[in-house]
Amino acid sequence: xxxxxxxxxxxxxxxxxxxxxxxxxxxxxxxxxxxxxxxxxxxxxxxxxxxxxxxxxxxxxxxxxxxxxxxxxxxxxxxxxxxxxxxxxxxxxxxxxxxxxxxxxxxxxxxxxxxxxxxxxxxxxxxxxxxxxxxxxxxxxxxxxxxxxxxxxxxxxxxxxxxxxxxxx
Length: 169
Fold this sequence. Notes:
mainly beta, four-stranded antiparallel beta sheet, 49% strand
């Protein structure tokens, strides 16, 4: 639980994060306002997860395209440093896909209050894991920074944080 002003009205709101306890490390996240002792849900993770989906599409030459319909942003992940056995499942010897392959994404698995612009009003960073052939085949995370926009949280900034790898030998 975290108390902080997310709406800019000078009144502290309540951020609640509950760990799922499962191996996927999902979280259940809510932000509530209690202005004039009236409870109001400002953020519900279920609605967020429904609105923030991604396409994860393998491309020729050891690349993966991660696309966010919510923002129109695309991220290209280079997977050429992956194990040869892994790559041979997907690509021929010239680096061309053997067949179309889709990866996957998770719902929110990290939800953190941040004050990015140091104005005393908190934003939220929501993390969603991006994976390939199976859940443990993770490429990294989409990180959306959400900011209060009149009557709802909206994506203010979006990044993809990509896991590093050992350099090729």
